[in-house]
Amino acid sequence: MKKRDFLMLAVLLLEPTRSALAEQQIDSFDDISGYSVFGGLVHQGAAPDPIDEGISSLVVDYAAGDTDAVYLNRYITPIDLSAEAAAGGVMSIRMWVAAETVTARIITMQFETAYQSEFSYSWPLNQTWDTGWNTVVVPLADFVVVDTSGTPSWSSIGQLKMQTGMYPTPPAEAVGDVILDDWRVLDALPFDAADLNRDGFVDGLDLGLLLGNWNQNTTPDMGELNGIDPVDGLDLGLFLGAWNPPPPSGVAVVPEPAGVALALIGGLIAVRARANQGSSTSSVRWPKRKSSCRSFG
What we know:
Blueprint: H1 3-14, E1 23-27, E2 36-38, E3 42-44, E4 58-60, E5 70-79, H2 82-86, E6 90-97, E7 105-114, E8 117-122, E9 132-139, E10 144-147, E11 157-165, E12 178-186, H3 191-194, H4 204-212, H5 233-241, H6 257-275
Antiparallel strand pairs: 1-12, 2-5, 3-4, 4-12, 5-11, 6-9, 6-12, 7-8, 7-11, 8-10
């Protein structure tokens, strides 16, 4: 890791974390009658359909072998998401898929101010998810501005659009429905997505899993929180926003992110200092190993 990359990591770890999330629920999908559907069929989720939150979900019907793109569109009373966007917030939606292979899933999502004036996001064509429920999160800053007919504004979102589908095709084939639930915009990563080891807390154990996969192409439950490989500083920033350690008990105190950062910095300096003993210079030398961290536009 280059010096500048490590310093970026330390700065992120030293940032204060939020004590509570500000959020808006975009749709509970308890009533999907307001959606226009093109290219396929949807139905209101009911037992035995999986339901994650509330009383129902939105089920996009895919039979085995289907690859169709299904377009969902809903006009809403304009909502203001500018505070969440300014705070570096994220979009969060629960999605159920039938297979860990490349199968039917969300392909694109748009928050629209007016026709062809929207914020749009497209997932990688080879994106995979865990079988069952997944918390899908995307930073609002990663949505692309489409301003063909005017500049969109997070302060006035009046139309919601999504596309599900099966790409790439062929030979991959859908093996089951896509089910959506609990669509929200938050000012930080939802807690359950950052609880990588599923022990009910977001703490140093989860941080260890994320850092253990640094620069790797992996899955959301191993630290790829923003859905775009590899695991990097953007995923770490999302993780720290959801920091939620267990309460201290006796002397077993879970370190805060700042404590973890100081420990990492101190440890690295100590290691480098020992490695440089006997050198003609007393300054700490940083390793020159190549880094494959990448940034997002």
